Amino acid sequence: MSTAALAANPLAPHRSPEPAVAPVTTPVTALRRRPRIDGATDSLPVRACSGEALGRHATPTRQRPEVDPSALRLTGRGRMLLTALSVLVFGSAIVVLGLRVTGVLEPGPHFTHTVPVQVAPGQTLWSIAQNTNPTEDPATIVEKIADLNKLSSPADITPGETLQIPIAR
Questions:
Q1: CB under 8 Å, gap of 24 or more: what pairs does 51-59 form?
Q2: Does the chain have fewer CB atoms within 10 Å around its N or its C terminus?
Q3: 137 pLDDT exceeds 90?
Q4: Per-residue exposure over 124-146, b if at least 16 CB sit within 10 Å of its own CB, e if not
């Protein structure tokens, strides 16, 4: 089969009886330009049309401030991470402060044992609490005395009555 026959039938299997020859390189040519029109210049004429010709007035464009290239720039994912982190930190601070206000984090004094005390005339639970536990807050001691002795109010004591008083370590 001749080379002309192979070129005429592109679907035919290509078998070359000749030995393999190095391919011929063709010189690279520049891209084609548009055909030149007589009397035209290289650049096409462009008619400028301002907004004033159309009945619109030009408004000044807002200039973006120049940003230092070394400045930190956050992406959308970075902003989302920063927001989540700040919510986590501030949320945990609010929870800790809330627990501290309610008294959960500060359990108060730890009472090791109780002692019986007889109420003298003119004594109050407050004065008894201050005498028996001088380093502790008297309000918490008065509350604990009322709970231990099943008193409905701190004023329900009578002189000569024996009360169980908690002692903090």
A1: none
A2: C
A3: no
A4: ebeebbeebbeebebebbbebbb
